[in-house]
Amino acid sequence: MQQQEINHALKNPFQPILKKVLKVDEELERLSSETFYNPFDVLYLGMEATDEDIKKMFNSFSKLLHPDKCQDPRAKDCWQIVDQAYKTLMESEKRKVYIRIMREAREKTEFERLRENKRREKTGVAPLPPDTFESDFQKQCKNLFSEIEDRKQHLMRLESSQKRYKLDEYERRKMLEQYKVLTEEEWEKTRDDRVNKWREFNNKKTAIGTKQSNKGIRPPTENIEARPSEMPTKKGDFKNIKLD
């Protein structure tokens, strides 16, 4: 709300410095209670701010919130937010990215307000007040930066998940390689024992087929069954059967 009230009072919403008077308590409360995705918002700067404007606001914050000058326990964390915003904006390439997003937000704000005013004109309703443009612009900026941050966090989670998968796969392969090495070592250690057992088995197999090994083996005796010389052809012929 504080940022919106300040912006509403501005005659030129795109001037480089949006607030020139800073108060320690207000800034400590603002920086410690809000989440900032746009470094321009941290330093009360518009997208047209120059390097000189950025340094000027940074020095103003430094006089108020630097831990060496401010004894409030929140000062350290608040100063880190200010310092990070300053470093980001002083890198021209990063600053261009934020400016491009803010320009996109301004274009969307202009388009939506124009569409809303046309709708109001058709229904006989008064157009949107001009002094609400900046508040709409700030809302659009926050929405865009919030969406970008959400996508960024999502990509980071995906990247972290992929790294974790690769790490798990690496550990799995490493374990398999270690198991393979241990198995091969165990196989080599028992090689002599396996060779000796195989030789003993072959020797026993060879010994079974020799004559010496067959001495104790005797074939079964055959009992020759007595058979009749002539088979009976009639019922009474069984009495006259002669055995050989």
UniProtKB/TrEMBL annotation:
Classification via SMART domains: DnaJ (SM00271)
Domain J: from-to ranges: 38-102
Gene3D superfamilies linked: DnaJ domain
Pfam family, one: DnaJ
InterPro entries membership: DnaJ_domain, DNAJC8, J_dom_sf
CDD domains reported for this sequence: DnaJ
Name of the protein in its database record: J domain-containing protein
Record region (Disordered): 205-244
Any single GO CC term annotated in Swiss-Prot or TrEMBL for this entry: nucleus
Ranges of Basic and acidic residues composition bias in the record: 224-244
Entries under PROSITE patterns matching the protein: DNAJ_2
